[in-house]
């Protein structure tokens, strides 16, 4: 069953057409790697899915509901409900610097309410253990390495029990020796069948962990397929040229 359907998405900044005609579906348990050159529209696409950007045309369906249908958005209440099913992890972590690790995790669930403090605390402890950072619960983000910050960001996204997790180049801001610990956490989530979309430049990771690769160039998906066949035998010239460069 598709848990997300995107069709004919269009987005421009002034005269610059950033998303031309983006169409794809995400099935439950999919781990989709999105690759493509810098400036091709990957971040804009991802941000549009969680309503951090507004699109100019097309549709985004979350489950059976439309976030936006033929360019017309749902009500703000409906949008809130749909975007709460999605968690986002950014390249630059976006942790709250004035809050401890534990407070970063617990803030959103406390604001949303409907859940007791004990329940929230229990989940934050479990998730910090899951990403190997139980000993950092009381630390402030400035005291953490980039890899640790990103693992906190992943745990924070999981606090909201998302149905789908979106990653925008989660390791691009990290020193090379710190990427492994973050990719390992994402790989573990894949093994637990978390549904994920991962924009990444880590081709080895995409090949190993994703069940589908989608190649974006110039505001469109040009080619998609199973990682093995995509990486060994890309069909389009543009994908071939891109893979030769990276
Ligand atoms: P990618 O993530 O693939 O590198 P982006 O989605 O960040 O690509 O950017 C796609 C294009 O949109 C780029 O040409 C970029 O300069 C432009 N762009 C992105 N955000 C904005 C913005 N807020 N205002 C104007 N242009 C933007
Ligand atoms: Mg980007």
TrEMBL record:
This is Amino acid ABC transporter ATP-binding protein. InterPro entries: AAA+_ATPase (IPR003593), ABC_ATPase_HisP-typ (IPR030679), ABC_transporter-like_ATP-bd (IPR003439), ABC_transporter-like_CS (IPR017871), MetN_ABC_transporter-like (IPR050086), P-loop_NTPase (IPR027417). Belongs to the ABC transporter superfamily. It is found in: Cell membrane. Residues 4-243 form the ABC transporter domain. GO terms for cellular component: plasma membrane. It is a peripheral membrane protein. Keywords: Amino-acid transport, ATP-binding, Cell membrane, Membrane, Nucleotide-binding, Transport. GO terms for molecular function: ABC-type amino acid transporter activity; ATP binding; ATP hydrolysis activity. Its main location: membrane.
């Amino acid at each position: 069953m598709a848990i997300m359907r995107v069709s004919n998405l269009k987005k421009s900044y002034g005269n610059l057409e950033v998303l031309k005609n983006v169409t794809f579906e995400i099935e439950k348990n999919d781990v989709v790697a999105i690759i493509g050159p810098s400036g091709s529209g990957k971040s804009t696409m991802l941000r549009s899915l969680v309503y951090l950007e507004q699109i100019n045309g097309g549709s985004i369906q979350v489950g059976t509901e439309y976030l936006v249908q033929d360019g017309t958005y749902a009500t703000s209440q409906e949008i809130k409900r749909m975007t709460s099913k999605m968690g986002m992890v950014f390249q630059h972590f976006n942790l709250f610097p004035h809050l401890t690790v534990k407070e970063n995790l617990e803030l959103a669930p406390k604001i949303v309410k409907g859940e007791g403090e004990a329940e929230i605390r229990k989940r934050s402890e479990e998730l910090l253990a899951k990403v190997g950072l139980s000993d950092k619960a009381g630390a402030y983000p400035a005291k953490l390495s980039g890899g640790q910050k990103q693992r906190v960001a992943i745990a924070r996204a999981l606090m909201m029990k998302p149905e789908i997790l979106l990653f925008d180049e989660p390791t691009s801001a990290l020193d090379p020796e710190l990427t492994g610990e973050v990719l390992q956490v994402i790989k573990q989530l894949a093994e637990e069948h978390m549904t994920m979309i991962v924009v990444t430049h880590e081709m080895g990771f995409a090949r190993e962990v994703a069940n589908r690769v989608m190649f974006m160039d110039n505001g469109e998906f040009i080619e998609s397929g199973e990682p093995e066949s995509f990486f060994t035998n890309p069909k389009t010239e543009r994908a071939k040229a891109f893979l030769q460069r990276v």
